Give the backbone structure.
Amino acid sequence: MANPLYEEDLALLKPDFSLSKLLSPQTTFIVVGTTLLAELFDRSFAERLQDEVNRRNGFDVRKRAFILVDRIWMEEAWLHEYGCIAVGGPMSNQYTRWLMKNVDPAAKESLWPFSPGLNGFVLCQKPPIAVLWGQGVEETRDAVERFISMPEGMIRFLDQL
């Protein structure tokens, strides 16, 4: 199921459906592209990240991860007060493309500078932003798995929220 906390969310949000009941400074948004390939592959990797964020935060409803498409993330400025992990390269994810063009390279802390085929960087700021992708589908999966397992990856990201 796309939302494993569906029943809990519904009960918590009723009667006014105010999203503030679900969000906190520890909320993470995982941003994927809107292409068919992004849906087929990057969303699966995003779901893996979502599961791991939720597990590490004890499945706390207000410290969890949500998956959004890039267009919504970029249009809804109020979301930018939360941490974000973009999954997918600049060809499939508009937000990754925007970050590549608009963020000073000096602000990007590479996650694995000497790993051919893997791309990823973190913007060490409040809230933190991480961007993960590879030269192909398998490399993007590897970038996500490496981010989850390495101390300077997910652990550091969650600590910065």
The chain has a mean pLDDT of 92. The domain at 23-160 is CATH 3.30.379 (Chitobiase; domain 2).
